[in-house]
Write a structure and sequence with these properties.
By secondary structure, this protein is an alpha+beta fold. The protein has 10 helices and 15 strands. The strands form 3 sheets. Strands 1, 2, 3, 4, 5, 6, 7, 8 and 9 form a 9-stranded antiparallel sheet that branches. Strands 14-10-15 form a 3-stranded antiparallel sheet. A hairpin with a 4-residue loop joins strand 11 and strand 12. The longest helix has 19 residues. The chain is globular, with a radius of gyration of 25 Å.
Length: 400
């Protein structure tokens, strides 16, 4: 698919000069020839599944109105002729042919890549001028979209009132481009931008994860609160009487801080493993995908069949950490400990989305790997290819 992802720049030059620093426009960065996505197919997807979707209407009953899916047919038939957009996140889970657009970006670690979002817009459709707190690559798939940005550090960040959308009220661009199919615009975090459809168009966004310290701390504390390390209680045997009962004495503050910090210290030894599970933990599976893969709660899931081809269940993340004594493999929030001799097998599982029978048969010659693969199948982390919800040859979805 890739022609020259960053134009005249090498990947190393892009990382050094642009990544998280400044925007980059690349003409004909990717090849979109032969890619034909029907807007009606996207609308059907939003009606028949729980794909994360929303419709943004600029000129409706109230300015800048947002509706969140799943939708019904009437939600689309009642839309105006222009000035609206349909956005669908995690689109690679439903239209697997779009996964090809993720591959060129895997010079960055998989855990950093969030998802693909597709945006269909009617003429003048937009989500308003805004900024994102993460890196994004905007790839034009069909039609034309005009992008405006400003790189001024002192831009006005006041937001438009009367809407739930975070739209910049006084956006003043200093650069503007019209993107054609195959063109790509990279934007680092915090760059105000505004995309407006010039006629019907479709844009693909490759978004990246950038967890905040607040998100990490909250999730970690939620996870470790029940640990043994936090079961200690404040104690103050042989304390002295206190003249003023309203005072929180310094020695009490020190004691309370001590049990808190001790719990954190004892739990931090397992922080690497927690991060591995956190970064691979998936979203709640879409019931439509579970049904498409014929996945249901049962006790008679067959053992691994090395005559069949398998793949990751859509949205399943894999990553690993190489430790001193072992490899920790993380699959969809689960942790598995393996010997260093299994590194190549672990790298294969993390690198590929589809696992063909010959490769699986080779892996299963090792008892530890066979046990791992059986566990992944029994936990629906990898599933049979034959139940794929889309025809891989035509890309046609049964949801349309």
């Amino acid at each position: 698919m890739t022609q020259r992802l960053f134009g005249s720049l090498s990947t190393e030059n892009f990382l050094e000069q642009h990544w998280q620093q400044k925007p980059l426009l690349v003409r004909q960065a990717v090849d979109t020839a032969g890619l034909d996505i029907d807007p009606a197919e996207l609308a059907g997807l939003c009606c028949d599944t729980e794909a994360p979707s929303r419709i943004v209407i600029e000129q409706g009953e109230t300015p800048w109105q947002m509706k969140v899916g799943p939708f019904e047919e009437k939600d689309f038939t009642s839309l105006p002729a222009t000035h609206w957009s349909l956005l669908i996140n995690d689109i690679e889970n439903y239209l697997p042919e779009l996964r090809a657009f993720i591959e060129p970006f895997r010079f960055l670690p998989d855990w950093r890549i969030d998802d693909l979002m597709i945006s269909y817009a009617t003429n003048q459709g937009s989500v308003g001028p805004h900024l994102d707190e993460y890196d994004v690559f905007l790839i034009q798939l069909q039609g034309q979209r005009q992008w405006s940005i400003t790189e001024k550090p002192d831009f006005d960040d006041s937001l438009l009132t009367g809407t739930d959308l975070k739209i910049l009220q006084n956006f003043q661009p200093d650069q503007q481009w019209d993107l054609l199919p195959g063109d790509m615009l990279y934007l680092p975090p915090g760059v105000p931008h505004h995309g407006v459809a010039l006629g019907e168009c479709m844009t693909l966004s490759v978004g990246f994860r950038a967890p905040s310290s607040a998100e990490l701390v909250q999730s970690w504390l939620d996870d470790i609160a029940d640990n043994e390390a936090f079961r200690g209680r404040f104690s103050d045997a042989k304390r002295q009487s206190q003249a003023d009962s309203g005072e929180i004495a310094q020695q009490d503050l020190a004691g309370l801080k001590a049990i808190l910090m001790q719990g954190i210290k004892e739990s931090s030894d397992s922080l690497d493993a927690w991060l591995g599970k956190y970064l691979t933990e998936g979203k709640r599976p879409d019931p439509a995908l579970l049904e498409a893969f014929d996945i249901q709660a049962r006790d008679d899931i067959p053992a691994l069949l090395t005559e069949a081809d398998y793949q990751r269940f859509p949205g399943t993340r894999l990553a690993y950490i190489t430790g001193e004594n072992q490899i920790s493999l993380f699959v969809g929030g689960l942790e598995f400990s393996l010997d260093h001799k299994h590194l190549k097998a672990v790298q294969y599982l993390c690198r590929e989305q589809e696992y063909l029978a010959p490769a699986l048969a080779s892996l299963c010659s090792d008892p530890a790997m066979r046990e791992l693969l059986n566990t992944l199948i029994n936990n629906n982390k990898i599933v049979l290819m034959e139940h794929y919800p889309c025809d891989l040859d035509t890309g046609q979805s049964p949801y349309s």
